[in-house]
Amino acid sequence: MNLFLTSTASASSTAGSYSTIIMLLLIFVIFWLFLIRPENKKKKKMEEMRSALGVGDEIVTIGGIMGKVVQATEDTITFETGEDRVRIQVKKWAISTNVREEEAEAAAKGKKKSVFSSGDDKKDE
Predict the structure, then answer these.
(1) What are the residue boundaries of the structural domains of the chain, listed by start?
(2) Looking at the domain 53-115, which fold is it?
(3) pLDDT tens across 94-108, in order?
(4) pTM of the entire predicted model
């Protein structure tokens, strides 16, 4: 009888350890889906935006300086700020947004919204 109880106890502890492993894996998968994966997508999108910058694009740096690109190399951007034509050279990683690209995305979202609108937003005459 003692042998039967011992084997049952070891079987239940094995099942308990499997459920613990499964729960840890489940937590890792959820963590990856909701935190790591979106951050990687965001980084990839930023890298694509920075590599696609060209002369004439309007940009904003991570410090908030706005300007128009006048020269782009593999890892640096030179841009002019305002009417005084001051040129600033920064690394590409210091660019936070491409203003024209951002405006085009906003316009595309605005068009999608108007296509699906219900017509309630019409003005009363």
Answers:
(1) 1-51, 53-115
(2) SH3 type barrels. (2.30.30)
(3) 999 998 888 888 888
(4) 0.61
